[in-house]
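Exercise 7. Predict the joint structure of the components listed below.
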Amino acid sequence: MDINGLAIIQKYLPLIIPIILLELGLLIAALVDIIRREKTKGPKWVWIIVVVVFNLLGPIAYFIFGRDE
Amino acid sequence: MNFMTALNKEFLEQRRTRKFLIALVVLVLFGMTSPLMAKMIPQIMTLVPGGEAFAGLIPDPTINDAVAQYIKNVTQFGVLLALVFSMGAMAVEKDKGTAAMILSKPMPRGSFLLAKFASLALTFIIAVVIAGVAAYYYTYFLFGELNILNWLTLNGLIILYLLVYVAITLLYSTLTRTQYVAIGLSFGTLIVLGILGGLPGFGSNFPDALISDASMIMSGTPVTHWTGLWVSLGIIILSLGAAWLAFRKQEL
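Solution:
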């Protein structure tokens, strides 16, 4: 079986794109929320790093623990 | 304030705090990735250095692998979200005094508590339904058609499983004033029920049986023993009842 990584990605690209868009949407929503919020629990720059670096878990952690209501 | 007004307020809160968004995105993501991973991982394995040797040994993924991945991912992450979302539902409101403020209006405490449960239930029902649709589409595209009735039953059992832990966490959140104590107790209960559910024979009487029932239904094996389902419904009712009894007598 002669398969390379690129061929696998290309084959399933139409199914991978919605997943990337969904993750990107959550990341952007979290970043917008951090920037627009007056203050967060903990420094804003730390949350920005967490949200950008930790894919999926970062935005979730921010929304649950980082928002200062 | 009646129950529907309280429910509207609570569900608005679910959206405002982004809990609804998180549940939706996380569960839909796992709905999409589970069948995709079931299909792709054996192919990716052959790309790992030395993996060619295993190419012939890895069986071709089947529709059952996709379903098993979906059940495992949605229940594991769903239950974590259920615990995290419910931990502060009562404890934080009591601690901050918002519960006292809301209940100063003519509103029964039972409606307040039930609205909390119903709004969380609504969040998980909508998220699992959309995740189920996404997973169905991906599985259909990658493996073939699933039996729709069985698929609906499977997702219904997953929702019930998640609601068991919403109700239990809501009870602990009512009994304590600290949300982290509530989630700690819930996590302990999750582990205990998981151990009990793993016991041979006896285990089919616990909520974890809902997950094995869901797998059995999808693999075409008829489920004859529904005790796990009734026990799960009983746990939900008992937890909410106990939370109501405790909340009735609490000073806010």
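Discussion. The mean pLDDT of chain B is 92.
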